[in-house]
Amino acid sequence: MEAAKIYVIDGKFAIELKAFAKIINYSPTALLDIVRRLLSKRIRIGIKWKKKWYILLPDMRRFLQLLDGKEVPDQIITTPSNHDIDLEKNWVEVVKRYPALLPKRDNEELARPRYNLPPVSPNPATGQLFMVQSSTLNSKTDLLITNVKNNNYRATTAYSYGYQISYDPKLMSTFDPGTAGSLNSTQLPQAFFEVCRALDAAENLRNGANPGVAPRNNISTTVSFDTGTIAVAATLPVVVSVGGDGSATISISDYLTGYSTFDGGGGDLKSTHLAAALYEISNILANAEKAVTPATDQPNNIQIVVDKEAGNAQVNANIPFTTSAAANGDVVISAIDYL
Predict the structure, then answer these.
(1) Which of 158, 203, 154 lies closest to 174, judged by CA?
(2) Out of the domains of life, which is the source (predicted)?
(3) Looking at the whole model, is its pTM more than 0.85?
(4) Tens digit of pLDDT for each residue in 213-248?
(5) Domain segments of the chain: what residues?
(6) End-to-end Cα distance, the chain
(7) Prior bond of 320 cis (ω within 30°)
(8) Separation between Cα atoms, residue 108 and residue 59, nearest integer Å
(9) 284-304 burial, b for 16+ CB within 10 Å, e for fewer?
(10) Pairing of strands 52-56, 12-16
């Protein structure tokens, strides 16, 4: 990983948004969308200065004290845009909405979440601060995912990154793709990845067919061979309706009408378009993570946040994958069944 400059703003460290996006395996576009959405709610962790966006890094000791509900004195800083903020309190609000925005320690044993930001060290020649290698980024040979330790995935019997992976069929997660439908996957993480790829492709198809219309870029799917993870960030439009019994129902709008037909084939997914299918499979995958016992071993590779005021659902995921080579030399990417 290349060194990235750390800046000081009123006594607080800040890093360019693009560099921070790499640390948490987000696309810069998706991260900027979240930062702007937070700004609309007067939650400030990102600032724009001279055409560039920066992320303000919290004092971790004070942040964790606030996260634990402890009373600490106010600590106000002034941003270049002349806004007075308590940065750590803002970060607490961010974590409530988007837990994945702070990198987590890989082998965390404590019940409550703890977070690790990249350390910094001074450049003796210039006195500037630079980021050193972050412990939150792992090489593809290690592939440590939060709460999934040392490649010991529950259903895995043999594993070698880029070569082969074998499962015990009795322990694998199960997914029914139906018959002659849109999907072929038979395990949950791979089904999630398959829907993401299809929705991404549908956006590209729609954008290419309508060059004079504003593009739709509601999903970003990034496959990183360096970290061995598939990073997904999606923003889906939602409609909330209230039933006669007072219950609220969330439905996903088809923002790609004509390009996103989905056929569940009579299997587990009942949605009729890809955006709804992504929301449906995301919830199924999140529920499967919560079903892992004991609770301390539950992975948290997918997060779903519904903002009824903004009218959208945010899906963020980091899914481990492996690769293989097809007979014709094509590289095949397969999501690992980490459940």
Answers:
(1) 154
(2) Bacteria
(3) no
(4) 889 999 999 888 777 788 899 999 998 888 788 788
(5) 5-131, 188-335
(6) 29
(7) no
(8) 20
(9) bbbebbeebeeeeebbbbbbb
(10) antiparallel
